Amino acid sequence: MSTPGIPRQIENVDIRITGTLARVGVPVIRIALGIVFLWFGVLKFFPNLSPAEDLAARTIERLSFGAIQPAVSLPVLAAWESLIGIGLILNRWMRGVLFLLAVQMAGTFTPLVLFPDETFSVWPLVPTLEGQYIIKNIVLIGAAMVVGATVRGGGLVAEPPIAASETGATGEAGAAQS
After folding, report:
1. Can you give the pTM of this predicted structure?
2. What residue ranges of the chain have pLDDT lower than 50?
3. Whole-number pLDDT of residue 5
């Protein structure tokens, strides 16, 4: 598909770039997502290294009505996040990994409701640093959705095929608009 007004040489470079991005984009986002989860998960194995550990522990404790204490919740959360990261990096067990990720992500947003005084300086418009840390997870969810869209073997395409209604009977783009 030619873009009007763009010189052919520039268009050829654009075609190569978008083709490369379509080919490597999903694996790059999957591995990057895996690195984030593995990194943040491993930090939680070591007391006082994760800036999120206190809020995470208190959230789990509140959600479990005090039944799950930080001594249990933090190592479980660390292992959970680490498993998500390893699965994403290795591209293994994707359906299970993405399920664990979805459950974990649902949990990460609960402090916004449970602890609004800590997550917002002006509710609901001005998040604190902790609130920003939580809200950025929207990007991780979007990345996981893209990865999840490929578990059945699909992928990105640089240029979608031209629909039959756009090509007309001759098979040439734009022929129907003449």
Report:
1. 0.84
2. 169, 171-178
3. 81
Do residues 137 and 128 lie in contact, with contact meaning Cβ atoms separated by under 8 Å? no
Q: 120 in a domain, yes or no?
A: yes
Is 2 within the bounds of a domain?
no
- Strand pairing class (120-122; 126-127): antiparallel
Q: What share of the chain is helix, strand, coil (3-state, %, to 5)?
A: 65, 5, 30
Please give the pLDDT value at position 168: 55
Please state the domain count of the chain: 1
**162 found inside a domain:** no
Q: Please answer whether residues 147 and 30 qualify as being in contact, where contact means their C-beta atoms are separated by less than 8 angstroms.
A: yes
Helices and strands: H and E segment counts in the chain: 8, 2
Any domain includes 178 = no
Q: Is 3 helix (H, G, I), strand (E, B) or coil?
A: coil
3-state secondary structure of 126: strand
- Residue 139: the pLDDT is 97
- Name the residue range of residue 41's domain: 13-157
The pLDDT score that the predictor gives to residue 176 is 42
For 85, residues 6+ apart whose C-beta sits below 8 A from its C-beta are 34, 35, 36, 37, 38, 39, 41
- pLDDT at residue 166 in the model: 58
What pLDDT, on a 0 to 100 scale, did the predictor assign at position 154? 87
The alpha helices in 94-151, defined as continuous H runs, are: 94-114, 116-119, 129-135, 137-148
The CA-based diameter of the chain, rounded to the nearest angstrom, is: 71
